[in-house]
Amino acid sequence: MTLPVSQTLLVCPEKGILHITLNRPESRNSMSLQMVQELQATFAWAANNAIRAVVLRGAGGHFCAGGDIRDMMTIRQQATDNPQAYQHFNRTFGHLLTQVNSSPFVVVTVLEGAILGGGFGLACVSDVALAKADAQFGMPETRLGIIPAQIAPFIVQRLGLTQARRLALLGLRINGEAAQKIGLVHEVYADNEGLEAALVRVIQDLQQCAPHATQVTKALLQQVGHQPLEQLLDDAAEAFACAIQSAEGMEGGMAFVQKRAASWVL
To answer: Which terminus of the chain is less hemmed in, N or C, by CB atoms within 10 Å?
Structure first.
């Protein structure tokens, strides 16, 4: 399966890491339907190849300023003949968020400039979020007379209901430091040098971890709160037994005893 061709993304695979850059800098990387579909195709490709992590960022100093207004206007014209045009457009982005959220690899977001609306939602479904201190996070939908329909559930999962209510109902914007305080991002840096150094370190840390064990661990964490606890613990014990007897488990144990790097460490 070849890497999909994209017009709105810059895509670069490198040693098991897939770098994806949202590439519509003239619109602060606003999310068009084409970009959503190209992201879906690229994430599907990554799930079927030996990708250990996706690094998602934006070109031109911004991550993503939300939905594309031009696309909205086009859909307004279509809605006369197709009353479900808006619904389909909105739901397509929800499918992307679900796909990113449940992807088998680690998703790292590098967040700077505008992280609004749909961009805010993408940040909330990442596993590791690195941000500039002066980045601007926000949910402006209610100030525009619309609602954060597809991102709302993921924001509640990420931040909890109390913080989600405050941000969504007041249409607030917060900077990177405030985003770290409420648990939206993990690390904040004042300059680009610090941000890039942090990304290098995150990738190095990831490469210390066994690929399949990381994938199973992410799937286990995703089940918390969605499966009865006793069943989840039973399933986790079964997965643990498989892991410790697997080639990865054997190699990890031997590497520890022999005080050497495991075979998966690059």
So the answer is: N
Separation between Cα atoms, residue 94 and residue 10, nearest integer Å = 22
**Cross-sheet strand order for the sheet of 173-175:** 114-116, 136-138, 173-175
9-207 CATH: 3.90.226.10
pTM: 0.94
The tens digit of pLDDT for each residue in 44-101 reads 999 999 999 999 999 999 999 998 877 777 777 776 777 788 888 899 999 999 999 9
Domain residue spans of the chain: 9-207, 211-257
DSSP letters, 94-119, are: HHHHHHHHT-SSEEEEEE-SEEETHH
Q: How is residue 35 written in tokens?
A: 């970009």
> Which pLDDT tens digit goes with each residue over 121-154?
999 999 999 999 999 999 999 999 999 999 999 9
